[in-house]
Design goal:
Radius of gyration: 15 Å
Structural class: mainly alpha
Helix content: over 70%
Shape: flat
Largest sheet: none
Number of helices: 2
Distance between the termini: 36 Å
Length: 49
């Protein structure tokens, strides 16, 4: 079941990057750019506790 879910998500991501390459790249960059600072903040909170 996990393999089916991952395969479906990869297929949808591939289709998005093929259909809208600039939008896909900008969306990915935005998600990574906002996700990394939040991840580092939360991981730092866990270390201090």
């Amino acid at each position: 079941m996990t393999v089916l879910s991952i395969g479906t998500q990869l297929y949808l991501a591939y289709g998005t990057f093929i259909a809208y390459p600039l939008g896909g790249v900008l969306s990915a960059a935005l998600l990574i750019g906002t996700g990394l600072p939040v991840y580092y903040y939360v991981s730092r909170l866990k270390i201090s506790n």
